[in-house]
Amino acid sequence: MLSGVQLARRSPLALLGLMGFMFFGLGLLLALPWIGPLLVGVLMPALSGGWVLAVEALHAGRRPTPTHLMLPLFGQVRARLLVLGGLHAAAAALTLGLAELIDPGLQLAWRSAMGADVTDEVRMAAFQALQSGMLLRMALIVPVVLLFWHAPLILLREGGSVGRALFASAVASARNLGAFVVYGVGWVAADLLLSLVLGVLLSALGLAAMAPFFAMPAALFFSAAFYASLHASVYGCIDFGDDAGAPEGDAPRA
Length: 254
Hints:
This protein is an all-alpha fold. It is built from 12 helices and no strands.
């Protein structure tokens, strides 16, 4: 987690540019009815591998570009990455469908939070409902995330079948489960703290209606730091047989 924050502080414009590019592209896809969310689910594993490649470029002293995010889709394992993405999309859809059955009010909370004709009290309550709904979905999707966490880079670095990559990813996540619990709790705590500070500050200044405008830059920086930390999380769990992807002073562990 700290490695991602440090990278975001060291190269904020580069990582914010990558995050903005990814958000914009995924936003365009999500605007497509029915097929859009499915395509996003298919592309996410390849994009996470692209973020690891972008951080490797940073460690090598090069400026990462959106091309790094797309590199996995133009390599020799593109077909296997797309199969992996299809499995990821199916697993995520089933999990989010279960979450919708448990908590069906997320869309209503989003409309209330973004509405222009609601009071500040209703807006803040909607933000709280959004936060609790997102936490529920995060908790339900954790097993899916851990199963797919290392698989894209395993395919990129080692090749092999999709099944082998998923098995190795599951084993690596299980063996480092305690570290991932700390990692996840750290990010959730940072998200809650950031939301609390931003909400209290805007309410005190009477700017609650402007919350979306202030929240977007904060969300971009937060997300960029998270995706930058994927590199350390993978190389901290898997030894690929060389130190090509590890930053100086961070030897990969088995």
